[in-house]
Amino acid sequence: MRRRSPQSARDGARANDTADKAVTDLALRAAGGDRKALNDFIEATHSDVWRLLAHLADADRADDLTQETYLRALSGLPRFAARSSARTWILALARHTWVDSVRHDMARPRKSAEQWEDATELTTSPDTTGGQTWAELVDARAMLDDLAPDRREALILTQILGHTYAEAADICGVRVGTIRSRVARARADLLEASGRGSLRNDTEGTDSGPALHWGS
């Protein structure tokens, strides 16, 4: 894979900064009652919100959580003061929506074996699994789900969704060093879990589970 040149990286950063400023301007206009700006703000941020929630929760719940996020945004926009970018603000709101849903669901029973089997039948085609087997996807998802929530969200934000450590820190409301520490610990946890899976598979005489590779 070709590495991006320093100039290319700078150009990309400038483009992202320009896009964020445009989104923030839309949010400020929407806060003032501009309905077209509100629609444009939702359109500009919807995919980022959905992707974050799909990784934190799952794709099945992402639609409902995204809708709830924007319902909260409607009441929160009049108080938006652009202390951070509007994109960071809406992603932080999405994160809070997910956290609230986790708290709400903590007392509910986990999926039964029959429900997992039903899900398997619905989602095992190559088009929906990216070429991976269902077992591999469940393995990788289970390893992520087993991470401590703060480590999982830090890993997802920086290593899967591509946010900088500073952006992730703003979204989570913590220091950059805290995000770095959580990502490092999440990687260590995944390596340990992957090692346990490989040992178990070797003992059972089967192939080892999928390798997980995370960027820096």
Describe the protein in words.
The protein has 216 residues and is mainly alpha-helical. The protein has two domains: 16-105, Rna Polymerase Sigma Factor, Chain: A; 120-216, Winged helix-like DNA-binding domain superfamily/Winged helix DNA-binding domain (Arc Repressor Mutant, subunit A, Orthogonal Bundle). Helix content is 75%, strand content 0%. It has ten helices and no strands. The protein has helices spanning 6-31, 35-56, 59-76, 86-105, 113-122, 126-129, 134-145, 149-160, 165-172, 176-204. Helix 1 crosses helix 2, helix 8 (149-160) crosses helix 10 and helix 9 packs across helix 10. The radius of gyration is 19 Å and the shape is globular. It starts with 5 loop residues before the first helix and ends in a 12-residue tail after the last helix.
What attributes does this structure have?
single chain; 216 residues; mainly alpha; Rna Polymerase Sigma Factor, Chain: A; Arc Repressor Mutant, subunit A; 2 domains; 75% helix; disordered C terminus
